[in-house]
Sequence to fold (666 residues):
Amino acid sequence: MTRSSPEPVTAVTDLASAWLPARMTEVERRLGETVAGWGPELGGDTGETLAAGGKRMRPLLVLLCAGRSAGLEAIRAATAIELVHMATLVHDDVLDDAPLRRGVPTVYANSGRRRAVAAGDLLFSRAFAVLADDGGEDGESRPATDRQVELLAHASVALARGELAQRRDAYDTGVSIERYQLRCELKTAALFECACVIGASRSAAEEAALLDFGRAIGLAFQLLDDVLDVVGPPERTGKARGTDLLDGTVTLPFILARDADPSLRETDLRALDAATAEQVCDRIAATGAPERVRGEARDRVERAKQALRASGVGGEELQMLELVADGVVERYS
Amino acid sequence: MTRSSPEPVTAVTDLASAWLPARMTEVERRLGETVAGWGPELGGDTGETLAAGGKRMRPLLVLLCAGRSAGLEAIRAATAIELVHMATLVHDDVLDDAPLRRGVPTVYANSGRRRAVAAGDLLFSRAFAVLADDGGEDGESRPATDRQVELLAHASVALARGELAQRRDAYDTGVSIERYQLRCELKTAALFECACVIGASRSAAEEAALLDFGRAIGLAFQLLDDVLDVVGPPERTGKARGTDLLDGTVTLPFILARDADPSLRETDLRALDAATAEQVCDRIAATGAPERVRGEARDRVERAKQALRASGVGGEELQMLELVADGVVERYS
Fold:
């Protein structure tokens, strides 16, 4: 089954029975609490910027994979993983000098480079504080397991290594598929994998299946991001085509197009401007590479769904996770 | 007893019996392992830069406060806390555009802004990974307690909040003593406090005494840093006088001097250059404020030693911690 939805998370929480939206609301409340009150420290309405954005796909995965029988530790993990994701975005925007994200001014734009680096560090620290918080707000509360801290820390290490790998590969028009794959695993798949297993403990076999699921949809998610950067359309993605190229980031559509159009390898990425970057996108699109990558992303989603059926997740959780998986490749932003 | 030593940590490890240098060596090995192999990812000899520097005062505090009977969890905590400290320094150097630290090129200078932000994130993530690592390398190994994760996460939150507070106060020549005190607590004392209690669990009363000890030497440490920035001498501190002022950071020597020489309040810190910053330092020194702050730092060290004697720490650990406390104010770098 393939469903089309521009907002997979909303679609899922609208369809699910009450436990899921209630828990997502609780995660949202905790995220809001975590960033509330920073207004004076950060200057401007950065708290709102932080609290507002995002598809919340990772917390949704945490809650669904943990299942409705999971307790407060799943809500804490969902909150923590989104805080790490937010921290990464705040630092990425500093690195990319990005004025806007999803049409809203970035923390970097609102508060400057120094405050944005510190704000990212703060979000990051808060993630681990949330996980380790011994709560006390209700009888259900109990501290995070070391397992959860280890999972989140290892995913965070992967995110930082992914950024470093991207820097190393920057502007290299001859970069290999293997390097691209490694970057996707580090920068995107690792946190999806983490999301799928951090909320609750399962048997080793079930956990392995959920890791496969998370990895596959993470890679599909990144592949589709990279397709959208080439083909847009900007009025739906909310950003200009070719922004990755302008940043020196060579992705799979370019790599595949390079075989059909070897002169692409001669492109001087450092010399691109917005207009010439769009022209390169047109040349990539002309080879059919973006559609091949989109097909690859869909294949991975199918494999993800196969892994999911071996994971022991059933009932409504299974249905909803299939919807999330489909939503990963049927989206524009 | 007050001892003078330019390198308090070396003095302590030289005097202590074998367990302490052996454990410090083990911490050093783990720090080296953590940064080893990043050469290719970071570009240049950043791994060496990271591994080389630092007084390692925080790990020393962890090991001494935990005591010789503590196990592997103290070594892990000592490693983790130094990684958080290193992460902070790497990010601080990005924020300050700093070419050198302790006479060695910074990660920022070696590898650029983007890689340095990612390298800081990586060190930070590794800190929590080290703490949660379930090891397995020997029979003694066991996972970190949630207590340790919570302590380190809360200290990290404080560090980031301290940086934000410093940004907020930047260039404000009228900043209050209370704001200065808050910044010192967040940016410096919080990690010292954490170091003194993270290595081993103790009774509530003993832990409270160790927190008092850590807080007092942390504040003394910061006070002395701020004195050295005004009075130098550069040939011993390894940096020019007035670098805080050039960065817009108003510290206690300036605040106290402002009372004796109100015209200091009119200083346009944004208009300073290296030469005029030194002139401001001379005006601050002329009021006697730096020596009053140095006296304040010494008072805090005495209070720290009083707290220490109520902490239940005894024997060689007590002697060595008193040496560390003295070293905090009897140093030039």
About this structure: Residues 204-231 of chain A form the longest helix (28 residues). Residues 8 and 105 of chain A are 24 Å apart (CA to CA).
